[in-house]
Each structure stands twice: as C-alpha cells, then as structure tokens.
Amino acid sequence: MEFERTDDSLIVRLEGELTSENTPKIVETLFVETDGVDKLIFDLTGLEYTSSAGLRMFIALQKLMKDNMVIKNVNDEVMEIFIVSGLLKVLNIA
C-alpha cells in the first residue's frame, strides 16, 4: 500500500490481494490517513484479488467519504468481483 497526498486528496495504491488477514490493518491505516482529506482515490492497478473483507472496506470508506471516493484502474478479475457482488451501483468506479 502506497499513499500520495495532494492538497485535498489522498491517492491509495493497492497491490497484491485484499484478504481477511490484511484488510483490518489497511482499514485502520486508512481511517487515520483520510482525516482531513476531501477526496479519496484508489488506484487498483496492482490489485489482483479482493475478498469480501476488501469489499466491506470499500463500502465503509465510500460511506465515510460521502461519495468523494473514486476507484480507478481496476483489472478484469477485480472488476468481475465488483460486478458479481453488485457493488457497481454502490461504488464510484472510473
């Protein structure tokens, strides 16, 4: 996980897999890092897989950011998970 801050945004780059083992630590870190941020941008170029724990993380952060969250560069495998889970209607995926 990498962070890049701009004036009012936080870009989060995720790599590998989001699983029930690593997602709690990522969530803990993100809730601290998003303090004072107006826009949260996830770059999922390097994300290969997300479990339901990762999906819950995206939903929770979407609610926290009040629609000021964007997910971009989603590969086909992760996009399929978003589609099957019905989250395309909930998440802002560019």
| N- and C-termini, Cα separation | 20 Å
The rounded Rg comes to: 12 Å
Q: Which of globular, elongated, flat, extended, rod-shaped describes the shape?
A: globular
The number of distinct structural domains comes to: 1
Oligomer status = single chain
CATH class: Alpha Beta
How do the SSEs run, as a string of H and E?
EEHEHEH
What is the CATH superfamily label?
Answer: STAS domain
Compute the number of strand runs.
Answer: 4
Q: Biggest sheet: strands side by side, in what order?
A: 1-2-3-4
Helix run count: 3
Commentary on this structure:
With 94 residues, the chain is α/β, with parallel strands linked by helices. It has a single domain, classed as STAS domain (Transcription Regulator spoIIAA), CATH 3.30.750.24. It has a four-stranded mixed beta sheet. α1 packs parallel to α2. The two termini are 20 Å apart. The mean pLDDT is 94.
How is this structure best summarized?
This protein is an alpha/beta fold and 94 residues long. It contains 3 helices and 4 strands, in the order ββαβαβα. Strands 1-2-3-4 form a 4-stranded mixed beta sheet.
